[in-house]
């Protein structure tokens, strides 16, 4: 595994980019006047509350698992809430690991409501709900606090899902979705939001989000009577394990060509780093989740949330590299799907 | 020069055909793009038809392209293989139906 981010960046800066076959991301966005990439007003805080997870997916970006000890503390969570209060950010987006396994998860949800968060997103792997007795009541807890649930669903068929996420994951996910439906989540017009995330299980780009959503809705409804609100089609960025996979399978060059070919200048305007900050479990600040995985802290004097200062942080250039092409391909890609 | 007739990297250069005949090339690509848009048939259905035809005309570039296109659209491998069979069935049927011509000729020439 190209664990060290330096090695990954070397790959992303070398090869077809170094020899001029493909343009550097920086040069590409400079053509439309988007370089340097700068943040706008902060709207979303994406927070990684720790690497503990009930699953051990082969392609997990953070290598999450039951034995990981990296867990966000209550103090750090409080600092995140301070940012919400001072900046007026309206969305908290929790990732992990399984965010629900953080011992202070429920406390955080309750405090966030008091801090006036409009949209509290939990990226739930769904299987956690069935993993252990102490999580069985999660759907009710979510409902009580109007938590917005977003879950990964690699495909609406068992084979493809289990291949990406492990045997039995599909059936457990289906059960969890049915449970969420039963208490009102994902039902048309219900305020209890349940969205699904689709990302390709291989070296290809996601298809049109609206068409994929239609197919998912039809199949999940017909086969399992499941409802959900939106499907977010997310492009796999060439970093971490996915980058390893691309290289090992001989798909790296073709994939980069496909990303560059699908470059959409309209998507650059809305890449998520322009209105989002990503916070690591230990409080370090990153431009986005991907830069966090690459270990690239923000290019600012302020790099940790204990020193947070909106004005100073906003006056920074976002760190970009060739992985950013993943955010600007086709209709664009963010943690909430297409951006154009 | 590549030392084989087909080089997978050539698929990326498909667009270059306009360089030697701009108007015809552009018209072709415009037509091509239009054909595969959503219409009376969905883009998904057309992708499967394209995959079947790609096999019948045995174009390795098209097979690569429409396998990937199918994956992007969430088409399953079972659906893809059935499409290939549909193409193969028509192709073998087209051969076999000529057996009737053979039978006609045989009968005509025989006493
Ligand atoms: S469920 Fe998510 S966080 Fe957990 S191991 Fe799988 S990919 Fe990683
Ligand atoms: S990878 Fe991160 S920094 Fe690059 S464009 Fe996407 S969100 Fe922005």
From TrEMBL, chain B:
<dbReference type="InterPro" id="IPR026445">
    <property type="entry name" value="AlkhydPrxdase/COmuclacdeCOase"/>
</dbReference>
<dbReference type="InterPro" id="IPR004675">
    <property type="entry name" value="AhpD_core"/>
</dbReference>
<dbReference type="InterPro" id="IPR029032">
    <property type="entry name" value="AhpD-like"/>
</dbReference>
<feature type="domain" description="Carboxymuconolactone decarboxylase-like">
    <location>
        <begin position="23"/>
        <end position="101"/>
    </location>
</feature>
<dbReference type="GO" id="GO:0051920">
    <property type="term" value="F:peroxiredoxin activity"/>
</dbReference>
<protein>
    <submittedName>
        <fullName>4-carboxymuconolactone decarboxylase</fullName>
    </submittedName>
</protein>
<dbReference type="Pfam" id="PF02627">
    <property type="entry name" value="CMD"/>
</dbReference>
<dbReference type="InterPro" id="IPR003779">
    <property type="entry name" value="CMD-like"/>
</dbReference>
């Amino acid at each position: 595994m190209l664990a060290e981010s330096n090695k990954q960046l070397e790959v992303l800066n070398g090869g077809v980019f170094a020899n001029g076959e493909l343009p550097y991301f920086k040069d590409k966005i400079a053509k439309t006047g988007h370089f340097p990439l700068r943040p706008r007003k902060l709207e979303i805080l994406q927070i990684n509350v720790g690497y503990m997870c009930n699953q051990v997916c082969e392609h997990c970006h953070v290598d999450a698992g039951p034995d990981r000890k990296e867990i966000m503390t209550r103090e750090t969570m409080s600092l995140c809430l301070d940012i919400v209060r001072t900046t007026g950010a309206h969305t908290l987006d929790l990732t992990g690991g399984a965010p629900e396994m953080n011992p202070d998860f429920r406390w955080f949800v309750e405090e966030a409501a008091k801090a006036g968060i409009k949209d509290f997103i939990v990226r739930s792997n769904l299987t956690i709900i069935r993993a252990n007795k102490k999580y069985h009541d999660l759907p009710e807890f979510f409902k009580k606090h109007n938590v917005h649930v977003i879950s990964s669903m690699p495909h609406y068929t068992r084979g493809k899902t289990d291949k990406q996420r492990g045997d039995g994951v599909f059936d457990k996910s289906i059960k969890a979705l049915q449970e969420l439906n039963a208490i009102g989540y994902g039902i048309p017009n219900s305020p209890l939001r349940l969205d699904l995330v689709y990302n390709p299980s291989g070296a290809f780009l996601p298809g049109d989000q609206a068409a994929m959503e239609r197919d998912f809705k039809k199949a999940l409804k017909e086969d399992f009577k499941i409802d959900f609100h939106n499907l977010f089609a997310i492009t796999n960025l060439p970093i971490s394990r996915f980058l390893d996979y691309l290289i090992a399978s001989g798909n790296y060059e073709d994939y980069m060509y496909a990303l560059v070919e699908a470059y959409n200048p309209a998507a650059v305007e809305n890449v998520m780093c322009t209105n989002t900050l990503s916070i690591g479990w230990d409080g370090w600040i990153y431009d986005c989740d991907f830069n966090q995985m690459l270990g690239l802290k923000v290019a600012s004097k302020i790099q940790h949330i204990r020193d947070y200062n909106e004005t100073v942080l906003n006056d920074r250039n976002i760190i970009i590299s060739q992985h950013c092409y993943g955010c600007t391909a086709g209709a664009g890609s963010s943690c909430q799907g297409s951006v154009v | 020069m590549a030392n084989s007739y087909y080089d997978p990297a050539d698929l990326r250069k498909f667009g270059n055909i306009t360089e030697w005949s701009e108007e015809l090339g552009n018209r072709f690509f415009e037509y091509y793009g239009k054909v595969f848009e959503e219409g009376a048939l969905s883009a998904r259905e057309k992708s499967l038809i394209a995959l079947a035809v790609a096999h019948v005309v045995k174009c390795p570039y098209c097979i690569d392209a429409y396998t990937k296109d199918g994956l992007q659209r969430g088409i399953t491998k079972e659906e893809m293989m059935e499409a290939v069979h549909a193409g193969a069935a028509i192709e073998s049927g087209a051969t076999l139906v000529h057996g009737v011509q053979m039978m006609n000729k045989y009968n005509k020439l025989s006493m």
